Amino acid sequence: MELTPDRVVEESQWVRERSAVVVPLLNETRNQLGELFDTEVGTVTEAEYREEVASVFADGDVAVNVAGYVALLRELDVRDDYPGFVVDEVLGRELAATIAGGQPLSLLAQATFHFADTITHTDGTAGADDLDAALAAGFQTRLPGWEWRERPNPFAVARNQ
């Protein structure tokens, strides 16, 4: 596989166009997590998702890595699937973390990936459901809607202290 600027554009378009699959999964993941943590989580529209895809791919350093993970997962297949369980899980987890950004969001996205993966069943290659779960986990983590992210953090230290 070769990643060129043109290939990164192609992968970004594929991720953007995947909104009809990813956004419902993203919102279902948020709903189930909200129930588990007894909180309300905002829903995400396809337009919000597509705008966030553009933001992720606007950063070239992030874009090339996201495109690489996406391309690998789109093509990854393993006869009988189970022997390849580890590689698609690792790639999915890392894709979710890369989309989400730095700590602590990347760790939350990795954990959310495993949760989303349990409710994701995509026909196709072994990596297909991991790809959808990773996109849902990564984007749901970075997008607004979680109350704890929208209020001031009580651990922030004022600049003048």
TrEMBL record:
Domain DUF7984: 1-158
Bilayer-spanning residue ranges: none
Source organism of the structure: Halogeometricum borinquense
GO biological process: lipid metabolic process
Coiled-coil features, chain-numbered ranges: none
Protein name: DUF7984 domain-containing protein
Alphabetized InterPro entries for the sequence: DUF7984, PgpA-like_sf
Pfam families: DUF7984 (PF25945)
Superkingdom field: Archaea
